[in-house]
Amino acid sequence: MKKIPALLIFGPPGSGKGTVGVKLAATTKLKHLSTGDIFRGIAPSSESGKLIASYSSAGKLVPDSATAQIFERYIKGLIDTNKLNPDTDTLLLDGIPRTPDQVDLIQSVVDVKYVFVLEIKNDSTIVERLLNRAKIEGRKDDADESIIKNRLIEYRDKTALVLSKYDKNIIHYIDGDKTPDEVFLDTLSAFVSYNKNT
Ligand code: AP5
Ligand code: MG
User: Fold this and answer.
1) Phi, psi of 101 (to 5 degrees)
2) Whether pLDDT at 6 is above 80
3) What is residue 61's DSSP assignment?
4) Which atom of ligand 1 is nearest to the CA of 98?
């Protein structure tokens, strides 16, 4: 399979990856792909669905091999149904890679060219955003503060290490504490600069 060029939107739970990802995809040619969304779209009664729920409902990361397998299968499905063209499209990845091993596991499928990191100063901002979203979207992993804390621990212990796998020159930091419009503006502006120079 031909490697698909990709930009990565990175950051802790609730940092706004999905919010800005949807807006960027709506205003550019980037194709937003969130593994959290993909996982939540898998039938809970299926084997993969049961496996995913057993981890995600506790705020834990799904094991790397299963994650990479589902991700690759999903991408192949998009290509086979003409929803993704590896020759012309660029992906906006959200939620993967999420461990240093995942960086290696998905390397044959995607080529990460640029990384936006949404930074949030205080964990209290994250907890507040996610508890609030629980009331609107009813996501199980938002409902309980102890599960949110587990997600933050997973982020610090495993996910944050992903950044050390990429060249510093392709990493761009965005202040995720700003308003959604400002975060969008800053990310779009970083994307435009990136595009100009490639
Ligand atoms: P996933 O769905 O990716 O969850 P997450 O990383 O914890 O991130 P969220 O989706 O909760 O937050 P977000 O950064 O997208 O923020 P959002 O824009 O929604 O993953 C869920 C689970 O799936 C994982 O825990 C794991 O189990 C599993 N999983 C997924 N990928 C995996 C992988 N690769 N490997 C292993 N396991 C994997 O914003 C949050 C809220 O804040 C919203 O209500 C929004 O309206 C609000 N908001 C957004 N921006 C702002 C702003 N600037 N100001 C104020 N409010 C804002
Ligand atoms: Mg999200």
Assistant:
1) -65, -35
2) yes
3) P
4) 34
Number of C-beta neighbours around residue 26 at 10 A: 10
State pLDDT tens for residues 39-65.
999 999 999 999 999 999 999 999 999
Ligand nearest the Cα atom of residue 11: 1
The structural architecture, per CATH, of the domain 4-196 is 3-Layer(aba) Sandwich (3.40)
Crossing angle, helix 145-157 and helix 123-137, to 10 degrees? 130
**pTM attached to this predicted model:** 0.97
- For ligand 2, the distance from its centroid to the CA atom of residue 17, given in whole angstroms, is 5
CB 20 within 8 A of CB 183: yes
The domain segmentation of the chain, as residue ranges, is 4-196
DSSP 47-59: HHHHHHHHHHTTT
Ligand nearest to the CA of 53: 1
